[in-house]
Known about the structure:
Helix content is 40%, strand content 20%. Bound molecules: acetyl coenzyme *A.
Amino acid sequence: MNSENSKETILKMLRPETVAVIGAAREPSKIGHQVVKNLMIGGFSKEKIFPINPFADEILGLKCYPSIKDVPIDVDLAVIVVPAKIVPKVIRECGEKGVKAVAIISSGFKEVGNVELEREIVEIAKKSGFRILGPNIVGICDTVKSVNASFCQGLPLPGNIAFITQSGALAIALVGWTRLKKIGLSDLVSIGNKADIDENDLIEFFGEDENTKVITAYLEGIKDGRRFLEVARNVSMKKPIVILKAGKAERTMSAIKSHTGSLAGSDIAYEVAFKQTGVLRAPTFLELFDWAIALSKLHLPEGENTVILTNGGGAGVMATDAAEEYGVKLMDIPKDLAERLRKYMPPFGSVYNPIDLTGMANKDWYKGALKELLEDERVHSVIVLYCHTAVTKPKEIGDAILEAIVETGVKKPVVVSLIGGEECLDECERLTSKGIPCYESQEKAVAALGALYMYKRNIERIKKRTFIGLNVNYGGAKEIIETAIREGRYALTPSESAKVAEFYGIPVLKKPLAKSVEEATKIAEEIGYPVVLEVESPQVLHKTDIGAIFVGLNNKEEVADAYNKIINNVKKHAPEAVIKGVIVRKMAEAGREVIIGMHRDTIFGPLIMFGLGGIFVELFKDVSFRIAPLSLEDVDEMIKETKAYKMLKGFRGEPEGDIESVKETILRVAKLALDFPEITDIDVNPFFVYEKGKGGIAVDIKIMLRST
Ligand code: ACO
């Protein structure tokens, strides 16, 4: 099914004209009964609801049909509420009837190990040409067409925030909670086992849905990470996506073999995927909705200058701290604006940001000061804080804010926090309903504005992405990799890895192989002393332990001696090892040590790593990650995110390092990973960075392969 058809199907599913409930039970306590009742109470036309139950004539006053095939008109959505074992039979009938979409509430599939049963229903759907939501879901709540095809206790309030959830329980809970908080949703969709329709399909759908302004989701995992990268990035350019991704503590989920990879975990891949696609990651569902409200109601700020307006010094100070935490930049108030603001405060007020109107502040001062800020082009967003005093009523301050916004007609984002008791809460609710997001604490207000800035910066960053082509010798690398796979190996040997790196333009210490003393001395003479000799054998992993590596060899005699010793030591201590030869390599001139790596994440693909190298790598964990393909901006950012960047820029009088060679190596490692899906890990460690203009060199590179 192509993307257009898929969107059409999802439209029929979420906003159907006709709905059949298969398993519409007579007993009121059964879920199938509740779904029919919910559809009716929700406001869906009774003539368009078709209960299916072979043992009943009517349910809740509606005529019952023995099979969906008996329904006299076309059915858009069939909701399945029969036990799992009957599901294949009834969805086969859905196919014969030609329904457009099927939502399966029934549990008892993959989540309890019934993988085959789940596969069977997907197969039936594919053959029949419809799509499945679920199984194991609470159902669908759509406020656009008043469709409550679920067993939630009612529909959410209408609104323009779509919520996709992998937890059915959260869906149920959120109906009540969002109603309490007066948060309106366009849709609340439970996706359960995601046997067919997944978060990508729904994000894509809501991305084009004119009833949805912000897409939110609770996810425990993403089914198709590569598609997510594409879909989420495209949709983010149109509207914000805020995701609460659970499972942060499971950093150890994917056991990673290589040394560099040991610092990575799958949660990092999610973090990076969200960053690269412009998705905002909310830590809890409270923040998720706080942010979604601001994102759904406000215009994006045109610049970075934010002003805090307050009647309480403490609230202003706390907001200032929060501003730093949430990336909100407070502007220095220009002199002329400060002068104008003075009119709205006593002499002991403050015109520095936060602007403190003091506890004496009344409605007129708030209104006047806010108008000054809104009308000044240098100000791009305002945070209004109010602590309930005896001097004013929260309602008056709310009015002052609304009047200032209406009278100036300016579309700058304004977020508010009214701090106090019941009156503040009531007024907060009123302001929010009028399009001015209001929160119970200054931190929440700042965080919500921070989300707007985060989103704005994200989309600006994505728009700027530039990619460059790289010349590589794909064929050369392919031959080496294929040979290793044919031989059943999970890793390339050091000399093979070096060769592959060379083919991909990664500056690497060459590792020519000698098969005799004569060859070893000849190579040493050619490359110049001092040299290192080490055995090339897939079975010998710890060369130092068994005397299979000699460093600092200064002449022919030492090379010949080392060669013989290596062969003898390996034969003696690792008699089973296959000796492919002895590598003769240069002693690399020391440089500043960094590491560059790749681990293929099972969900998102090549996760590229950069960080500080050397003996402290494990201790400092000074690393950053991005998922390939990498833009030039991605590489630039990932280097700048680390402390290693400071070292490369020249620390304590050291000259600047060759950052360009690091960037190019990262890009080339990413390309190698993208070109060869059979590579699971790449570990360039250490990479010596020389002075600016002098490049750098991969002293060692390990390439691991997938078992076939
Ligand atoms: N076509 C239509 N209806 C049929 C058919 C058929 N071929 N065969 C039987 N039925 C009828 C039954 O006769 C019954 O109606 P009746 O009570 O009037 O006789 C009705 O369908 C339901 O069948 P039951 O066997 O009574 O099943 P029950 O209602 O007990 O359970 C259910 C069905 C709800 C699907 C259950 O199997 C299940 O999966 N429950 C879990 C649902 C769930 O929690 N989903 C995940 C939500 S997410 C979260 O965790 C919150």
